[in-house]
């Protein structure tokens, strides 16, 4: 059995939504001849076999309007069926092995066929991109996101509306933004969410430009007593105006304070994000761990930012909540 080196959470996705309508079958006379057949809702068929070469493209870094992509060539070394119908693949990239949910690879390939590199920020393909030779192990390239997108660009945060997301389909809408949006230009290192306490978006001319998600802390006592709420996601489209992250945080902070929370917390450090936007909105750096190891085995410089709130200020006051329509009493 080959060993892996990356420690990815390969089974951590919301499989009910992500693989809805797909069927998967893994078989073969021996481990070296295993083949996965994936059949999609529109009769799409993807076959992946041990020994197949695959190309994996992911974000490495970004700057205003630009994104650096890394594409690596890998070879499927092993496949096996795990618990509850989940399927594991070990992909050999030469320098390291990555364990992945092979269903994720198959569905990503199906979605990406016929689309541009803007469709997904983390995608798989069965062929090398046009800019990369078959024998190349790795390629780095910059893409200009603003040249590719049709999303209009606001002049400033005053052009934006702040909206709380709730009701049927709201989580799907927010997750679709966190995982790429309609032009694939948005990417959050942690992906979508399974639950939240509140979620908000910034819109411009009907388009979502940014999103922020508040979740209860893992400590059940703190959550029950409304002592603390956590910023679990914050993401922006490349057309965002200056200071939009701080604008989103400030609006979400005001909502949390008026909702009765005593403290709002944010963690930074994943994927190189240092959290510079938090001090700009009054947060203080409470904790810094240079080599933090999370539950998935990933190592990153963890920073914990905290801002104490004063919910008593709004006690017995009928103040509209940010992002929510005020109630209108009948005449």
Description of the molecule:
With 331 residues, this protein is α+β, with helices and mostly antiparallel strands. The chain has 2 domains: 23-145, no CATH class; 157-314, Gcn5-related N-acetyltransferase (GNAT) (Aminopeptidase, 3-Layer(aba) Sandwich), CATH 3.40.630. Helix content is 15%, strand content 36%. It contains 6 helices and 16 strands. It has helices spanning 15-18, 102-112, 145-148, 170-178, 220-224, 244-258, and strands spanning 23-27, 35-39, 45-49, 53-63, 66-81, 87-92, 97-101, 123-125, 138-144, 161-165, 198-204, 207-215, 229-236, 263-268, 284-293, 299-308. The protein has a 7-stranded mixed sheet with strand order 10-11-12-13-14-16-15, sandwiched between helices. Strands 4, 5, 6, 7, 8 and 9 form a 6-stranded antiparallel sheet that branches. The longest helix is centred in the last third of the chain and has 15 residues, at 244-258. The model is unreliable at 1-16 and 116-121 (pLDDT under 50).
Key structural traits:
Aminopeptidase, globular, seven-stranded mixed beta sheet, 331 residues, six-stranded antiparallel beta sheet
- Compute the CA-based radius of gyration: 22 Å
Low-confidence stretches: 1-16, 116-121
CATH class of the largest domain: Alpha Beta
Put simply, the count of helices is: 6
Assign the structural class, choosing from mainly alpha, mainly beta, alpha/beta, alpha+beta, or little secondary structure: alpha+beta
């Amino acid at each position: 059995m080959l060993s892996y080196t990356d420690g990815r959470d390969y089974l951590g996705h919301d499989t009910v939504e992500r693989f809805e309508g797909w069927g998967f079958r893994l078989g073969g006379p021996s481990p070296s001849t295993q083949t996965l057949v994936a059949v999609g809702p529109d009769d799409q068929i993807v076959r992946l076999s041990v020994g197949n070469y695959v190309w994996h493209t992911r974000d490495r870094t970004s700057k205003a309007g630009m994104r650096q992509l890394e594409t690596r060539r890998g070879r499927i070394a092993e496949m096996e069926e795990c618990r509850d119908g989940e399927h594991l693949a070990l992909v050999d990239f030469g320098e390291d092995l990555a364990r992945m949910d092979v269903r994720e690879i198959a569905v990503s390939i199906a979605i990406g066929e016929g689309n541009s590199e803007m469709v997904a920020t983390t995608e798989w393909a069965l062929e090398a991109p046009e800019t990369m030779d078959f024998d190349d192990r790795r390629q780095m390239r910059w893409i200009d996101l603003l040249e590719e997108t049709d999303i209009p660009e606001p002049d400033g945060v005053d052009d934006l509306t702040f909206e709380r997301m709730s009701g049927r389909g709201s989580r799907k809408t927010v997750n679709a933004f966190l995982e790429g949006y309609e032009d694939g230009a948005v990417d959050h290192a942690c992906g979508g969410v399974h639950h939240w306490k509140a979620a908000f978006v910034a819109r411009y001319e009907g388009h979502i430009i940014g999103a922020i998600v508040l979740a209860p802390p893992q400590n059940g006592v703190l959550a029950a007593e409304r002592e603390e709420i956590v910023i679990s996601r914050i993401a922006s489209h490349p057309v965002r105006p200056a200071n939009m992250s701080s604008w989103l945080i400030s609006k979400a902070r005001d909502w949390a304070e008026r909702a009765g929370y005593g403290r709002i917390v944010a963690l930074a450090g994943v994927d190189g994000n240092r959290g510079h936007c938090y001090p700009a909105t009054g947060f203080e750096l409470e904790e810094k761990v240079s080599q933090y190891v999370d539950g998935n085995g990933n190592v990153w410089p963890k920073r914990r930012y905290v801002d104490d709130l004063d919910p008593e200020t709004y006690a017995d006051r009928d103040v509209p909540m940010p992002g929510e329509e005020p109630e209108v009493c009948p005449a």
